[in-house]
Amino acid sequence: MPKDEYKNLKILYVEDEDLIRSNAITYLNRLFYNVYEAKDAIEAINLVEEKSPHIIITDIKMPKMNGLDMIRKIREYNEKIQIIVLSAFTDTKYLLDAIDLGLAKYLTKPIRHETIYPLLVECSKKICEDKDSRKYLSENCYYDTIHLVLKEDEKIVNLTKNEQEFINLLCKKSPNPVTYEELQSYIWYDEYMSENAIRLLVRDLRKKLPKNSIKNISRVGYKIDLIS
Prior knowledge:
Blueprint: E1 10-14, H1 18-29, E2 34-38, H2 41-51, E3 55-58, H3 67-75, E4 82-87, H4 92-99, E5 105-108, H5 113-128, E6 134-138, E7 141-144, E8 149-152, E9 155-157, H6 161-173, E10 178-179, H7 180-186, H8 195-206, E11 214-217, E12 221-224
Parallel strand pairs: 1-2, 1-3, 3-4, 4-5
Antiparallel strand pairs: 6-7, 7-8, 8-9, 10-12, 11-12
């Protein structure tokens, strides 16, 4: 990508054919740091909920649910994800069905670098220019959900990996709380989350945020107060 800031964007590639998906993931990994893959629409919808990708690249004809029906479900709760549809279909019916889904582009296969690359740059630019990615905790402190940085007075506040994942989850869920179960699966997914570990994480992160930003919700989890 021409700008380093684009590399932090999260990309989801959806394709049921293993070889095509593998080749595409190899290509996308050269452009972005966070690339996810799904072999069908159901798996993709779960990843959208879990990982909140910024760009989705998807096939249409897949088992369980086709790509256009998957997009309709995603659009019920997220209108901002940039979606590129790749399909072997040139049928007018599919083209017409896709019109109202707010797609970045409908491309017919096979897809080449000279076709997909400028489109990815265009989508990335739109995302990075979206000021809604800034979640303000005070007038001079915000967390950027695209660039994954915490800034105070426009200076980056250093975060550990767990702190970054925690604040990202808090901002994503706000104004709703993040449950202890979500913390376990999102941050401590491969190990046991002890009470002491979460207490220390919250304590250390609070030191880097405006006072009283993180609230403890008894027996539920934690939430963050945003001003925008």
